[in-house]
Structures are given as C-alpha cells and as structure tokens.
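Researcher: Here's the sequence for the chain we discussed earlier.
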Amino acid sequence: MLDNNIFCVDDFKQKSAKDLYDVCGENYTLTMQTYYTLKRKGIILDDWQDKYIFEVIAKNKADRIWRHYQISTVSQLLNCNKKQLKGIKSESPELLETIK
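Model: Thanks. This is the structure I predict for it:
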C-alpha cells in the first residue's frame, strides 16, 4: 500500500498529478515514471491548477529539464531567469511554445 489509501492502479482514478506527486513522496522522477505507467494502463489523471512538465512534453525532455534546472512544473517556468529560459528553449522549444 502506498500513501493516500492507494491499493491498486484503479485507486489512481480521480487523482491529479499533484496527488500522484504526493503519493510518490515528492520524488519527481518516481512521479514521472508512475505517470507514464498509469497512462499506458489507460489511467488519465484529473486536472489541477498547474501542469507538470512531463504532462506537456516528452518524458526524456522533461527528465533533462528536471536534471539540469530542477524545474518540474509549468508555473516554475514563469520564474526562470533568462539564462535558464535560453537553455530550456534550446532543449525543448515546443515547451515554451506550449505555455505561451
């Protein structure tokens, strides 16, 4: 059993990506891996007020952005400095286009 009374895959229905992040002990990498596992099993998470980067771009690019900049959510991009934004744009130009 995981936190938040999660006993099986179906228990993730009606959960958001933020709930998943909490269940995974605020471990971004584990959250991303679990998200893609759930997605393959047909579990689509509910929306919440923000989006995790892995929800809007490919897993490998989201992982690189996390490892290089420790940015996990779209709202964090709004607080990036110009140097970070330039690096992110070179790695994933579609991410910045997505949030415009």
